[in-house]
Amino acid sequence: MAVLKYLSLALDEIQIANDLLEWQGQVCLFIRYEDESLAICHFKTVGVAIAESITLLSRYYSH
Q1: How far is it, in rounded angstroms, from Cα 44 to Cα 35?
Q2: Using CA atoms, how far apart are residues 56 and 47, in angstroms rounded to an integer?
Q3: Please, what CATH class does the domain formed by 2-60 belong to?
Q4: Tens of pLDDT along 4-62?
Q5: Burial code of 31-63, b = ≥16 C-beta within 10 A, e = fewer?
Q6: Which of 11, 18, 48, 55 has its CB 3.0 to 4.6 Å from that of 43, i.e. a possible disulfide?
Q7: In angstroms, how far is the first alpha carbon of the chain from the final one?
Q8: Where are the domains of the chain?
């Protein structure tokens, strides 16, 4: 919970609306879809490691 509270406060600093809610027994941080890119960028700026999926285009992938 402490980590999510830290992330929520980091978003508050740049005025991105967010909510900490419990869902299926887990505390989750919710943000609007429109703010996702800005939020991820800000998280990276403050030192949060973000795992992102990478999609390979078939023309760049060779067997």
Answers
A1: 14
A2: 26
A3: alpha beta
A4: 999 999 999 999 999 999 989 999 999 999 999 999 999 998 888 888 776 665 555 55
A5: beeebeeebeebeeeeeeeeeeeeeeeeeeeee
A6: 48
A7: 44
A8: 2-60
What's the one-letter identity of residue 36?
E
Residue 43 CB partners (closer than 8 Å, separation 6+): 7, 10, 50
What is the pLDDT, as a whole number, of residue 51?
81
Vertex 47: Cα angle to 11 and 55 (nearest 5): 90
* Per-residue H/E/C for the chain: CHHHHHHHHHHHHCCCCEEEEEECCEEEEEECHHHHHHHHHHHHHCCCCCCCCCCCCHHHCCC
Q: Which two tokens stand for residue 34?
A: 């429109």
